Amino acid sequence: MQMHEWLKNNDPLAHAEAHIAGYPFGFMDEGAKKEIRRSILKAVAIPGYQVPYGSREMPIARGWGTGGLQITLSLIKPDDILKVIDQGCDGSVNAVNIKKFVMAVTQVAITTDTRAATLIQTRHRIPEERMTDQQILVLQVPYPEALREVEPSEMETRRMHAEADYSRMWLYLYEDIVHYGEITISYRYPVTVNGRYITDPSPIPRWDVPKLHMADTLFLFGAGREKRIYAIPPHTSVEPLEFEDHQFRIEDFSGKACARCGATDTFLDEVIDNVGGGRSYFCSDTGYCDKRSRTWNR
Amino acid sequence: MGYVAVKGGNEAIEKACQLFAYERIKGCSPVLGVDQIREQLYLTVDRVMGEGALYAPELAALALKQSAGDTLEASFMVRAFRATQQRLGYSLPTGAEKMRVVRRISSAFKDIPGGQILGATSDYTLRLLDFDLLKDDEARRKAFRERIFSSLPADAEIPAAFPKVIAILRREGLLEDSSPHPENEVFDITRRSLTFPAPRSARLQALARGETGGMLTLAYSSMRGYGNIHPTLGELRIGYLPLTMPHPISGEPYVVGEVKVTEAEVLARFQGDDGMPRFSLGYGLCFGQNEIKAIAMAILDRCTRTEKPSCPAEDQEFVLYHIDGIEAMGFCNHWKLPHYVDFLSDLDRLRKAQDLARAGKVQEDTDADA
């Protein structure tokens, strides 16, 4: 039997249909999906390296997660269970919007439970619960280039990466310390992946950066507007840029707890309660908070 | 003598104008009413009012009809009309906390006092062509209206006013003070020409009537990498602001109407002039609903306050001289005017230079032979 015949008979997508009439399963044509999967394979083979690819137009606006969406749509199968979060929240506008669209073109099952999902697309957070080697996390990326801070030109940053010429990035961190007494980069903290490429981990808080290091899960990063895909494969070293005497620190939530589930070990959202400026704190990862609240009430 | 015909010819010019007017009406579709443009293409109307710097929905719709939908031409007509109107005075400053809000979001905090009010927006729609709209009719509209109105709660209350997110941050000392250099008098850019460094009131006026696309381009260059301000949208609100005028005799404030505006407040990378690091603020405000312009304006307002500009979007002169769509389009179009004389002068110089080059070459060749 020829390869293409086998594929035709065993293609899980052969009989799958999109909910919206006239659109194929997963919105993009199969050729486009294959092209994106090839870029993903290259990205996995060279951890932290930004692979340029032919970014397609999605029916949501550029900058709203089209890169992540193209990765999700090129990987998704009818039996996948999808979770989509925006800033940790399943119900936030961007997540709802993307979920609505992916459901319309694939009809896959949706969950808010990190453990139950096979595929998770996220904007600016990594779930609190440790993910497994059976799951993939797709991160939406606004700025794939970690060196953009010190160099606006793409031609120049590609040269810097090729030659591992990262002196200006280190100098930037050093000058930051001279000015402010510490490194002021808050989110989007640059990391070195696999001891080679300085990589932008997407605008996740510093809290989430350690989760990328030696993980069990495949992390895929998609930047649709900037037309780049990159990856952090499982069991890969991910080190935040730091100096011996000025070490990387995660956000400080000491003395604070989630007002809903009581968690003291999660990334907390600060919410302004009233005009007087009173504050409360809630888990940013709403799926995890829901799960904890349910256990707690039982 | 074909060349002479190009030089002018009143009749040819007249006919070109007529042909332009005819192009718009030559089809067999029903007449396009100005009311249809105002109601159904309201975002374009808002854009024209903003760039034309005149709050007049009816006139902006008329201009759009007359210009066959060209927003630059339409804004131009509106601004030209503005020049015919008498200046009656300046309205009194109004804080946007008095706004009758129809949409209001913050991306800095998940929840804010008064709540996130999404309002009418295309942000969360799928950009899929809706082929049903090809056969849009009154019955379809009626069914849609009935469907959305039937599900409305009867007793929904709207707060009269919403507190400002940035006011809360400012009270806590996280944001720079409101005006380090207060201006008692507005620098009216329609009466005086810009000088640099331009006062903030002049910069904000120039930005408020700037062209959306041009401002977007410059703001995008800054947020993408040619700049360094790292904006967060503190608050974006759309609604109706009361227009308050002082009474011409008593000087007492009177509300004479309201204008629909979009306001954006951008929190940017902190700076510490007095040694205390604080967020800095970029401010954007424009007529109607034009969120892209308001956000771009807020970013450019903040960018142009950078003391040592390191890129085009931070350079006041670069930004303020180039964002006016009406000036830019006029100048771009002027290249279609005859430039025969200038070009002839150019040709003369070029021919002379070529002659010299040839002579030099001959000289060189002679030298080489010798």
Task: Provide the fold topology.
The complex is a heterodimer of chains A (298) and B (370).
Chain A: H1 3-10, H2 30-45, E1 51-52, H3 66-75, E2 81-86, H4 93-106, E3 109-110, E4 119-123, E5 136-140, H5 154-162, H6 167-180, E6 191-193, E7 197-199, E8 218-223, E9 228-232, E10 238-240, E11 268-272, E12 279-283, H7 286-297
Parallel strand pairs in A: 2-3, 2-4, 4-5, 5-8
Antiparallel strand pairs in A: 1-9, 6-7, 6-10, 8-9, 11-12
Helix pairs in contact in A: 2-3
Chain B: H1 2-7, H2 10-25, H3 34-40, H4 42-52, H5 57-66, H6 71-82, E1 100-105, H7 138-150, H8 165-171, H9 200-208, H10 212-224, E2 232-246, E3 253-271, E4 278-287, H11 291-303, H12 316-322, H13 325-334, H14 340-369
Antiparallel strand pairs in B: 1-2, 2-3, 3-4
Helix pairs in contact in B: 3-5, 4-5, 4-6, 5-6, 9-11, 10-11
Task: Name the descriptors.
heterodimer; A: 298 residues; alpha/beta; Rossmann fold; 2 domains; 7-stranded mixed sheet; 3-stranded antiparallel sheet; 7 helices; 28% helix; B: 370 residues; alpha+beta; 14 helices
